[in-house]
Design the sequence.
């Protein structure tokens, strides 16, 4: 399954949290979680937008580990980043995944079907 | 004419010997005149032999053309990579200026344009860095040769210019939290870190370009 941020979400990605503005990374993470409930492997196309902030990418992809209870290996295996035009985004997503630390079990909300 | 032969004994030639001994036999062959008539052959354009003497010259000429083409192409490629590096440095400079302005702007509604501009410029920088990386990437033949040879072929290999990590670093520094938070206040302390990351990228680009051009 392929999710294009520009086509399926917005051409103008916003800030980290929903409270900070429209089309946030937090909300996009919810889109990812919904898609991950349906498929095992998800391709996320980052091309075609006006530009991402680091916080958006960190919240959307690192948040899968911090807040959705997924492991690093699981995220790397199930979420494939496609960024043909700008490889720096793929590098940033990989860094966000590498640096994300899982939150304590009490504060997690598992909504993507993975075991917590 | 019958062949003539002359036999002289040893006594005849002055040797004191009891039994005659053949010293030499001279056989005179008849004079033979051989006339070879070779029909004169007229070469056509299909005779490969006509062109044989020209083949080394053609090979040298083709090699010369190939060498001239390759050198011109290499010079053009180096120039275009140099132009792309200059372009990247300019974009990153503009992006860092936009980011610093956005950090210093206290009014949330007025800094929205600066935030959008920073994102757009950093994306342009990322695309340019990706283009530079792809255009300078060592060809697969080099990877193949390097994997199969004990001796290093690095002195023949083109050095790639990879500034992806440097552009990512600038984005992280320039757009670190709470850059897009509408409730934040102006932050003057970010400028130093942004300028440092920009300087690092510019020096990395210069060094990589120098290595690439040799």
Sequence:
């Amino acid at each position: 399954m392929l999710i294009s941020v520009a086509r399926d979400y917005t051409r103008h990605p916003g800030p980290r949290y929903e409270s900070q503005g429209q089309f946030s990374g937090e909300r996009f993470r919810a889109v990812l979680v919904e898609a991950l409930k349906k498929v095992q492997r998800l391709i996320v196309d980052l091309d075609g937008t006006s530009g991402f902030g680091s916080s958006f990418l960190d919240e959307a992809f690192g948040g899968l580990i911090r807040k959705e209870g997924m492991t690093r290996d699981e995220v790397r295996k199930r979420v494939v980043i496609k960024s043909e035009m700008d490889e720096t985004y793929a590098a940033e997503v990989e860094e966000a995944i590498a640096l994300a630390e899982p939150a304590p079990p009490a504060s997690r909300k598992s909504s993507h079907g993975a075991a917590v | 004419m019958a062949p003539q032969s002359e036999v002289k004994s040893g006594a005849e030639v002055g040797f004191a010997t009891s039994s005659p001994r053949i010293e030499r036999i001279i056989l005179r062959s008849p004079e033979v005149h051989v006339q070879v008539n070779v029909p004169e052959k007229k070469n056509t354009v299909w005779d490969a032999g006509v062109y044989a003497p020209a083949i080394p010259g053609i090979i040298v000429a083709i090699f010369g053309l190939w060498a001239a083409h390759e050198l011109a192409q290499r010079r053009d490629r180096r120039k275009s990579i140099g132009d792309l590096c200059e372009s990247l440095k300019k974009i990153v400079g503009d992006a860092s200026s936009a980011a610093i302005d956005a950090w210093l702007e206290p009014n949330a509604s007025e800094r929205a344009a600066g935030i959008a501009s920073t994102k757009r410029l950093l994306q342009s920088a990322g695309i340019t860095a990706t283009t530079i990386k792809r255009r300078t990437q060592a060809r697969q033949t080099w990877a193949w040769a390097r994997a199969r040879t004990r001796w290093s072929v690095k002195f023949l290999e083109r050095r790639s210019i990879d500034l992806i990590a440097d552009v990512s670093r600038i984005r992280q520094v320039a757009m670190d939290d709470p850059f897009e938070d509408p409730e934040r206040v102006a932050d003057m302390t970010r400028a130093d870190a942004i300028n440092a990351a920009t300087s690092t990228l510019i020096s990395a680009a210069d060094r990589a370009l120098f290595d690439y051009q040799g």
Q: What stands out?
A: Chain B has a mean pLDDT of 84. DSSP finds six helices and two strands in chain B. Chain B touches chain A at residues 115-116, 119-120, 122-123, 125-127, 129-130, 133, 164-165, 167-168, 171-172, 175-177, 179-182 (CB under 8 Å).
